[in-house]
User: Fold this.
Amino acid sequence: MAAPRLALSVVVLMLAVIALTEGMRGTGPKKCCFRFNDQEVPKGKVVSYVKTSQRCSKPAILLNTVAGRQLCVRPSAPWVKQLISYLDAKAVPGETSNL
Assistant:
């Protein structure tokens, strides 16, 4: 009689652990910006960019620099729009998009 109870307890415990880990996996975006760099970054210092998730409270662009840093900038800034256009035009055809 104890064996079926033990087996049932183990199954319930395993299901609880699986449910908990699955719930934690996709809880939110990986990177959001809360402070922004307002100084214009030279085109030669930026290698790529990524838009932050729509689930972030503030829309932002993450610039990846030659030095390996990431800078948060506002997508509405005119210099950021120009930089994105420049980087998109520079992209190699057939390469995956930065978006």
User: Anything to note?
Assistant: The chain has a mean pLDDT of 83. The chain is about 35% helix and 15% strand.
